[in-house]
Design a protein that fits this description.
3 domains, Mlu1-box Binding Protein, DNA-binding Domain, two-stranded antiparallel ribbon, rod-shaped, 49% helix, five-stranded antiparallel sheet, alpha+beta
């Protein structure tokens, strides 16, 4: 039985199989993934097996070992380009172009390195710019809370590398702005801010600094968000008159 490798590609799983030391591609998953008719494409491949290198290779499946129609990976680009974009339906066209542009590279990368790389994420200049922006942002926002730093870095990693290498933080507590705290006690946001400054409440114990949209422009500015401990401290202070 030949060794089967599963290769994730744009939300579907394609396959590679090693046969006689060479990579082969079970074609049914490719054809179905694009949205083409497998019977038509299978007949095309069988009609010129020498041209395409088409052969049946036994591969493992849930129902046991089964023969699958395969092409050598080196033949896949030729078959891809033999499918005319102009002759397929609009529903299939974008998917076909996507496969033509990326599928053979993804499979070849997986065969050689053990993982597929999305070529659309390999944009060195954009990647470098995103990373440099992240460094500058953190340098100019030294008071930013850990949760906001993690969220910022998560978004930047997605921009730079096409995926969130750093997960978004888990929000375990709902934090409140000064205005929201003020509404609980019938006082203004300005008064809450003055009390916080007077009693030293803008610390990690009572919340954290996050980026928030300014009331007066589209800019993001550092804003302190208060936690439940802060709310109770405000309650205590305000009750004292």
């Amino acid at each position: 039985m030949s060794a089967l490798m599963t290769v994730p590609f744009h939300g579907v799983n394609l396959s590679l199989v090693e046969h006689d030391g060479q990579p082969y591609v079970p074609m049914k998953s490719i054809v179905n993934g694009i949205g083409l008719d497998w019977a038509t494409q299978q007949a095309k491949l069988k009609s010129n097996e020498t041209r395409w290198g088409y052969r049946l290779i036994p591969i493992p499946s849930q129902g046991g070992e089964q023969d699958a129609g395969c092409l050598p990976l080196r033949k896949l680009p030729g078959w891809m380009q033999s499918v005319s974009v102009a002759k397929v339906s609009a529903l299939v066209r974008d998917r076909l172009i996507e496969y033509q542009n990326e599928c053979d590279d993804a499979l070849w990368q997986y065969w050689n390195d053990g993982h597929a790389i999305n070529p659309r994420s390999l944009q060195p200049a954009a990647n470098d710019s995103a990373v440099e922006f992240g460094k500058l942002a953190l340098a100019h926002l030294p008071n930013l809370g850990d949760t906001s730093k993690q969220a910022l870095l998560s978004h930047i990693s997605e921009l730079a590398f096409g995926q969130r290498l750093i997960p978004l933080p888990k929000v375990e507590e709902s934090l409140k702005l000064a205005g929201e705290v003020g509404e609980l006690f019938g006082v203004s946001a300005q008064k809450i801010g003055r009390i916080a400054n007077l009693h030293g409440l803008k610390t990690d114990q009572y919340g954290e600094i996050r980026l928030d949209k300014s009331k007066y422009s589209d800019r993001q500015c550092e804003t302190f968000f208060y936690n439940g401990a802060a709310v109770e401290r405000f309650r205590e202070i305000l009750s004292q008159g």
